[in-house]
Design a protein that fits this description.
53% of the residues lie in helices and 10% in strands. It is an alpha+beta fold.
């Protein structure tokens, strides 16, 4: 049976988006594409209902409840006021527009947030393919030495050289965007943000981004709470 928990207390941001959203996602600790949506809500002070499906029960629900709500039968799925939202990155951009933040102000800033996010999306796709491969013992170490290093170097280079990024700490200097959340989450899920950031010792600009995300007041409170599951 999926677990259901109400997270947080409804505040002004819930009023802006029109209520308390419900997210359907795997019970995958504080990881995955669904967690990026939760991270945005946590930062914005949005209360939400969190429905989690264990990996054992998910195949059954994927064929019933999930497929009924989303023709592609994938999660995350968000429900709000009778509407169903799918595709994690479209969900992020949707709430960014509703909240009037998290995407940059000028067209150039919005483009750059999208471009940097796309690099992290491509990286996550390769990460998932390697990590959940039946031959993980061979595929994941190879991924760490090849595709992951390539993504890290690309992001670090962009962050240190692009006019909108090089001053830091975020992708768009001092403006926190959904791109920062997506980059942060894949770094977290690859276990690069833990253990004193030792996995980022060769990537100081990415480390700066991680530090900036984790010291945001609402994110810091989340990471120190029992809602954060590692």
């Amino acid at each position: 049976m999926p677990s259901t928990k109400q997270q947080g207390t409804a505040g002004p941001a819930n009023k802006i988006i029109g209520g308390i959203p419900t997210i359907h996602y795997l019970d995958f600790a504080s990881r995955g594409r669904g967690q990026v949506v939760r991270l945005m809500w946590e930062d914005a002070g949005i209360a939400y209902e969190d429905i989690r499906y264990s990996f054992e029960e998910y195949p059954e629900y994927k064929k019933s409840i999930i497929a009924e709500k989303n023709p592609t039968a994938t999660v995350p799925i968000v429900e709000l006021n009778g509407k169903i939202l799918t595709r994690s990155y479209a969900i992020l951009r949707h709430f960014a527009r509703q909240l009037g933040k998290y995407e940059g102000e000028t067209e150039e800033e919005k483009y750059w947030a999208d471009a940097m996010c796309d690099i992290a999306i491509d990286w996550r796709t390769l990460f998932i393919a390697a990590f959940f491969n039946p031959n993980k013992e061979q595929t994941y170490p190879k991924h760490q030495d090849t595709d992951r290093n390539h993504a890290l170097k690309a992001l670090e280079t962009h962050l240190t050289s692009h006019e909108l990024s090089k001053q830091g700490p975020y992708v768009i200097e001092k403006t926190f965007t959904y791109a920062d959340m997506v980059i942060y989450q894949v770094l977290h899920d690859e276990n690069l943000t833990q253990e004193g950031r030792k996995g980022l010792q060769d990537y100081p600009r990415l480390k700066q981004l991680v530090d900036a995300v984790e010291t945001r007041p609402n994110v810091k409170a989340f990471l120190e709470s029992d809602r954060y599951l590692g």
